[in-house]
Structures are given as structure tokens and as C-alpha cells.
Amino acid sequence: MVVIVSQLTGCVGLDIVHSQKTYSGDPAKTEGATKTTYYRSDYKWIGLYLSFIIPIPLIIPYGKESQTLWIKNQELIYQEDIKTTTTGYGCSIWMECGELIT
Prior knowledge:
With 102 residues, this protein is mainly beta. The protein contains 1 helix and 5 strands; from the N terminus they run αβββββ. β4 and β5 form a beta hairpin.
């Protein structure tokens, strides 16, 4: 009975796991700049994360998160970051329903 009651606080939801690219600077000015990519130790993931009292991750890794820099004359011209992000929707028994950002 204790195990069942402890699971009642679980969430029912669906999260979509995907990569998101963020950037800063002007990509039109990258001609002649030196491009350098740094790979992080974290993996990029893709898939679904289902929750119905017990979370079920249906996700797979597919490469490393990265940061790419374009530098010209010792000045940063453009930067791209690729990271894994998770967004979804869910309901919890003791909380209200809504958009989830995990």
C-alpha cells in the first residue's frame, strides 16, 4: 500500500527531447573568419519521454553537444550553440496541468 500511495504523486505527461540551436552575431560576416568547433562531453538526445506514474524514457543519443565560433582579427563574429532541450505538457495529481520545460 505504501508503494502505491507514493506513486500517486507521479506526473502524467509527454516530453519531446530534441536539439536546439542558439546563435549570436551576424552570419553574413563569417567569410574569411576562422571557424572553430568545440565538442562538449554531453550527448545530444532525441526522442520522447512518456510519464504515466512511472517515467518511460524513449530517447537515444546521436552525437555531442557543441559550440562553434567564427573569429576574425581576434574578434568573435558569429557563434552557434547546439544543446539538448526538453519541452512538453503534463498533469500531476497534486499540481495543475501545463507546459513543462525540463
